[in-house]
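Batch manifest, entry 17 of 40.
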Amino acid sequence: MRPTKKIHRNFFALIYLNSIVPLSTEVKGFLAEHVRSIQFSKGDTVYKEGDTCTKLYLIKKGLVRGYFLSGGKDVTTWISTDNEIFTSITGFFTNQPVKENIQCLEDTDCLYLEYGDLEYGMRTFSEFGELYRKLLIDYYIHAENRAFMARIPSARKRWNYFTETNKLELIDRIPNKYLSSLLAMRPETLSRIIKEHAEFMTKKSTE
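Output type: structure tokens
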């Protein structure tokens, strides 16, 4: 396979993925042919519970959350942002109906690869499997961080763990009602912690 003129269209994906695993000319050409772009508006639903999911997404710019409804309550389970991948784990990897809803919290610009193209790439190109492995490791590290955070009994300590393992800019980008849900605390508790954190940072900067 030779490189195609479509490479420029997926330049972001090629630079990002090549930084993870050096890609051959053949793989770059394959990705240029098969990676697609899609834009979502703020509030758009990417998938809802019960849908079929066949796409693995890479966020170029934006903010996406996963959530489920329990007794009429909206529970946020994860949030992904710039340069991160997302999908429905159950839907994409096992071809079962999606178990959660996926919603964009900002206008979100994504690239995606269909499951069939991913499977073909893994069968055909040796470095594709290594790339896939490293992407999954990163994906599951994020999942492990969320699982660990959910088991911390103290709201303050959950907040501390979140700020230690995520970009601080997310505090301003994620609406409080979704961030408080992710951190399993009441919105008023989160507001108080954020205020105390801001006061502490201000005091520290003047010392």
